[in-house]
Amino acid sequence: MVLIDDIKTNRDTQIYVVSITFFLIAFPVYFAMASTFKEMGELPAASGDWTVTAEWSNITLANGTQDVENDQPFIAQMNTDSVSEAKGKNVVGVMITLTYGEDETATGGCTPATDGDPAPDDITGVISHGEYLGNGTGQNPGEHTVMAIWYNDSYIGENVSNISKSTIEESLDVGEKGMGEYTLNISVNANAGNAIFPCQRNDDGETVTYLVQLMVLDYTIEAYEGSESE
Predict the structure, then answer these.
(1) Which of 9, 119, 149, 155 could pair covalently with 193 via S-S, beta carbons 3.0-4.6 A apart?
(2) pTM for the structure as a whole
(3) pLDDT-flagged residues of the chain (< 70)
(4) Are 98 and 209 in contact (CB under 8 A)?
């Protein structure tokens, strides 16, 4: 009964009892919340200043050479199941490289004075993977590259500030997002140059060589000099 009397009358005892009661309640609540956040992957992370360095590699998904007729697109389907080396990799994008010459011909009694010059054609490549799509057009002879990506490329090669390390990792680690089916579409808009009669120029399309590569990202995140990030 002395303790109860002390609680009623002694201020130091009152403060002591209140403190013990607070910690007995607060600690279990804190650890329960921390456990829940951890299971949900939402444990708060401290912001900091970081340097992100990328190391790139490519995996060939498909390649070939195709005669593409004017206004008749070539379409090819491919799947990462066909390339075992892609399994478990951080595939963050896809890149296609199209290479092409000039297939235009001159016929009908042409001479150096009448056969004229070829006209450039428009060669368009489109690569799609689910909701992600890249497209681009080039003119022959030559080559061009098209990419589609599904990661935050703004972090690469930059000092980024006031952000948590886990946020950067979530933006660069795409999991299985790069796995599955891809579609390649190549089209040609052919143009024939001018010639002097009786010479005639003809262009029905182009021969296009294509290379489809998966883009694999490995990276390191380090606190940049002078930062207190951990």
Answers:
(1) 119
(2) 0.74
(3) 1-46, 225-230
(4) yes
